[in-house]
């Protein structure tokens, strides 16, 4: 990190909660991530940007222990993601790009399930679930089935769920995709509050440049499997000759449209729609 | 072990909240019981084997357990599609506990389903030969349920999407059932069929259950236990291993 940046000064002396060293991932002959290194300081908001197919999702999967690196390593709160997987998992909360709630359970049951999976003591669990559901405005709807919720409500519930075991780090993989501006605003408001009041570190990816600019203390841009630039939003804008962050992003990653291959989950979603959504 | 309990509870909640799942799983075994039981009954009796419903009932109870356990185990694929799988993948719980919780949940549902089929069998005239052997019958139902659910979980971790589901039904569930001695007695089978039946683990489940309900084991209780128990342990270990390898 550039030592003269205001973020570095504010966070001076904070340890790195994520440390990524020469991370690589190949699928057969295809090298999706080609040696990525960066660090995320505790208490910061780290924006991870990149066009589709740039290696962004693959990197996030490796950071969150769902994909094993081909080479290099990831340390989450000092724990190696491969050798100390369970400790690393305990240290972070995550809101995935796609909903990951059980639709046939209620909001409270989803919270309960998470709390038990993360070994949150029972007495603490009750208190924490109420506090978090109130925080995201869903306490009144705790006994409603998740399948009745809109995308925005599900997102809020997922944020509450991800924080239940008091992680110091929260991963948000495109948390506002498909949401209307009001809901997006509300979600970032909640996240900002958490950062300020609880010292939470937030690692997020997004395609909305104005969100990245508003929220992130530090931005890294990945393209073709490599980090092509990192710094504050202001520094990135300057580096590419002024303009908006979106201009800077396009200058760094080019203007061509990327084709990303559909994953099995996407194909299944398409099939489910074709079948009329029943099961 | 709390992870095991909460995932078990989840399966049960989902089962009791879905009537269609409950009723759907009953159709096939009951159809077999009524159509084959009464359709082939006279022929079976003429061949000197006695009452066919009496012979068939343990087979259709097994079928009820098998189809529900495999179907419910394969639900891992649905969880993959609807995203919930990821919540369990990043959870700091040992993979064996996650697979065990799911498997026991599926097994419990399958056991309930098998018990309902058993009650239907009683209604249409089936009579257990010795009430004192009923606990043994229940024990075999439990073992069959856990084995089949573990099998379903293994299949569910391997398959990427529901395209393969028909494949499972055609090449795993149905053959397991048809070559299990659920429908016909083992002793005078043609050799090729006899080998298939002997190699089929479900045969030993059907045999144990039939033995407990009608008093006649084709193999021994010990053999039945060993095959079912051994295979269940292997499938659970394999399931946990495969689950740890899932990448989304």
| Largest sheet strand order of chain A | 6-7-8-3-9-10
Which oligomeric state applies?
Answer: heterodimer
User: Could you list the spans of chain B in which at least 5 consecutive residues all have pLDDT below 50?
Assistant: none
The largest inter-chain interface, given as chain pair and residues per side, is:
A-B, 36 and 32 residues
Helix content class of chain B? over 70%
Q: Using DSSP, what is the number of strands of chain A?
A: 10
Helix proportion range of chain A: 25-40%
Based on the structure given, which CATH architecture of chain A is correct? Answer: 3-Layer(aba) Sandwich
Q: Please write the string of helix (H) and strand (E) elements of chain A.
A: HEEEHEEHEHHHEHEHEEHHH
How would you describe what is shown here?
The complex is a heterodimer of chains A (about 280) and B (about 250). Chain A is α/β, with parallel strands linked by helices and about 280 residues long. Chain A is about 40% helix and about 25% strand. Chain A contains eleven helices and ten strands. Chain A has helices at about 5-10, 55-65, 85-90, 105-115, 120-135, 150-160, 180-200, 210-215, 235-240, 245-255, 265-275, and strands at about 15-25, 30-40, 45-50, 70-75, 80, 90-95, 170-175, 200-205, 220-225, 225-230. The N and C termini of chain A lie far apart (about 50 Å). The model of chain B has no long low-confidence stretch (mean pLDDT about 90). The radius of gyration of chain B is 18 Å and the shape is elongated. Chain B is mainly alpha-helical. Chain B has helices spanning about 1-15, 20-40, 40-45, 50-75, 75-80, 85-90, 95-125, 135-160, 165-180, 190-200, 200-215, 220-245. Chain B contains twelve helices and no strands. Chain B is about 80% helix and about 0% strand. Chain B has one domain (about 1-245). Classes of the chains: A alpha/beta (about 280), B mainly alpha (about 250). The interface of A and B includes residues 68, 103, 105 and 267 of A.
